[in-house]
TrEMBL record:
Pfam family, one: MFS_1
Record protein name field: Multidrug export protein EmrB
Domain of life: Bacteria
GO cellular component, one term: plasma membrane
Organism: Paraburkholderia sediminicola
Gene that this sequence comes from: emrB_7
Transmembrane stretches, start-end: 15-34, 87-110, 116-134, 146-167, 173-195, 207-226, 238-260, 281-301, 307-329, 341-357, 369-392, 485-503
Chief place where the protein resides: membrane
Domain Major facilitator superfamily (MFS) profile, first and last residues per copy: 21-508
Membrane topology, from the record: Multi-pass membrane protein
Record has Cell membrane as a keyword: yes
Length: 520
């Protein structure tokens, strides 16, 4: 630690260098986050072209997610041994190469191997982007640096499915990977030009092989369980049960080992800090709810309301409007106020949006779909910036890469957990509501009997009338299931506000600013 702290501070960037450096880091983050969702809507095209089933094709998503989840918490450990600028550069270059390999893939195994490499090298990019930005801005403007970072992180998950669907429909699926090449090349050149003389001190330390092995084991098992749980009917499957046991047992050993190891691969002692713990948990659960709903809403629109993939993506697009416009304002306001106030307002806006969505009907119009999404952008503008500021509060510069990596790891895992929980819960609530509606299908029910008679008068036979009722009941059950999840999400966001106020950040902006000053 002494060696890392003895580094001569780098002065903040100024003028054109600051602008170019911010753009370079933002491009790398956008490219990275975009790839977590751009392939999702292209699985049918990829599977058909490579001659495999859709179930096999979903491993394109799983392989990236597993490798990425494992590498993110290793950021701090790798930074000490490689240097933050060299590691960031290596991540960008290898990401571009692996994207090119994905596009060229002639077979599924080759594509999966390329996606594993892509996910692994993508891991350190997001945490290091925070570190480089904080170190590039003056202390007073650190919240503005976080606002620049937040905008790319917010827009990319929404843009991914839209861009992926359009490319698959109008060009060909390899181009969802080829688009990374020019973006990555620009980001790499700009990053090296601006940051090459601003690297951190390299610290040689023994490799924690046991910790690394346990990390790979429990994260890999958990991620595969989350991705495949719904397809395999969760714990009725022996495979899922085994994966769950392996994940729990190896996690327990991992925690014990890392807390006692002299050179841990993941610095779990960060959770002893109140601000880090409360900020990370609030950010991660909130992100899990956001990401779960981000998957649920388009899925419901496509399967039950009759929207195409592109139309469903466009419904989600307005979330980026207020997020982009207001994020810089949040960055300016944050130094003069308590970040907990901004985070609280953000969570209340999220709760309002989900409550509005919980009142949807099967006849929902475009205005009703767009309005909560538009308002949600206001919440997004105050979501990442104050919570990241709280999380990094009071940390010395040499611990920021490890803290950022661990916080982002928990957030990404919660995003995956949220997606799995929401899809499964929707299935269960839909089945329950369908059973309740089906109980009304009795001739002793005057409303049902009258409906069947009206269908008969309209020319339907009795079997056709019953079939039409079942179709309507299925659509209504899916609607009620979605409404339940939206309502619960609103309640959880309100409850999370208490967690925000468990943190005790210093003067607003001082936290992020202190982190920036220490990171120089």
């Amino acid at each position: 630690m002494a060696q890392a702290q003895a580094q001569v501070p780098h002065p903040p960037l100024e003028g054109a260098q600051l602008v170019i450096g911010t753009i370079a880091v933002s491009l790398a983050v956008f490219m990275n986050v975009l790839d977590t969702s751009i392939a999702n809507v292209s699985i049918p095209s990829i599977s058909g072209d490579l001659g495999v089933s859709s179930d096999q094709g979903t491993w394109v998503i799983t392989s990236f997610a597993v490798a990425n989840a494992i590498s993110v918490p290793l950021t701090g450990w790798l930074t000490e041994r490689v240097g933050q600028v060299r590691l960031f550069m290596a991540s960008i270059i290898l990401f571009v190469i692996s994207s090119w390999m994905c596009g060229l893939a002639p077979t599924l195994p080759f594509l999966l191997a390329s996606r594993v490499l892509q996910g692994a090298v993508a891991g350190p990019m997001i945490p290091l982007s925070q570190t480089l930005l904080l170190a590039s801005y003056p202390r007073a403007k650190a919240p503005m640096a976080l606002s620049m970072w937040a905008m790319t992180t917010l827009i990319a998950p929404v843009a991914g499915p839209i861009l992926g669907g359009w490319i698959s429909d109008n060009i060909s699926w390899p181009w969802i990977f080829y688009v990374n090449i020019p973006v990555g090349a620009i980001a790499a050149v700009a990053t090296w030009t601006i940051f090459r003389n601003r690297d951190s001190v390299i610290k040689k330390a023994p490799i924690d092989g046991v910790g690394l092995g346990l990390l790979i084991l429990w994260v890999g098992s958990l991620q595969v369980m989350l991705d495949k749980g719904k397809d395999l009917d969760w714990f009725s499957s022996t495979t899922i049960v085994v994966l769950a046991l392996v994940a729990v047992i190896s996690l327990a050993f991992f925690i014990v080992w890392e807390l006692t190891a002299e050179h841990p691969v993941v610095d779990l002692s960060l959770f002893s800090r109140r601000n880090f713990t409360s900020g990370t948990i609030a950010l991660s659960i909130g992100y899990g709810l956001y990401f779960g709903n981000l998957v649920l809403l388009p899925l419901w629109l496509q399967t039950d309301i009759g929207y195409t993939a592109t139309e469903a993506g466009l419904v989600m697009a307005p979330v980026g409007l207020f997020a982009v416009l207001l994020s810089p304002i949040t960055g300016k306001v944050l130094p003069r106020t308590d970040p907990r106030y901004i985070a609280t307002l953000s969570f209340l806006v999220f709760a309002l949006c989900f409550w509005m969505r919980s009142r949807y009907t099967t006849g929902v119009d475009t205005y009703s779909l767009l309005m909560p999404t538009l308002i949600q952008g206001i919440g997004m503008a105050g979501f990442f910036i104050p919570l990241v500021s709280i999380t990094l509060s009071g940390l010395p510069g040499n611990r920021i890469p490890a803290a950022s990596g661990l916080s982002n790891f928990v957030r990404i895992m919660c995003g995956g957990i949220g997606t799995s929980i929401f899809q499964t819960a929707w299935d269960h609530r839909t089945i329950m509501h369908h059973a309740q509606l089906a109980e009304q299908a009795s001739m002793y029910n005057p409303v049902f009997d009258q409906s069947i008679r009206q269908m008969g008068a309209a020319g339907y036979s009795q079997p056709q009338a019953y079939g039409l009722f079942n179709t309507m009941a299925t659509q209504q059950a899916a609607q009620l299931g979605v409404n339940d999840l939206f309502f619960v999400s609103a309640g959880i966001f309100v409850a999370l506000i208490a967690l925000i106020w468990m943190a005790k950040p210093e003067r607003a902006g001082g936290d992020a600013g202190a982190a920036a000053a220490a990171a120089h």
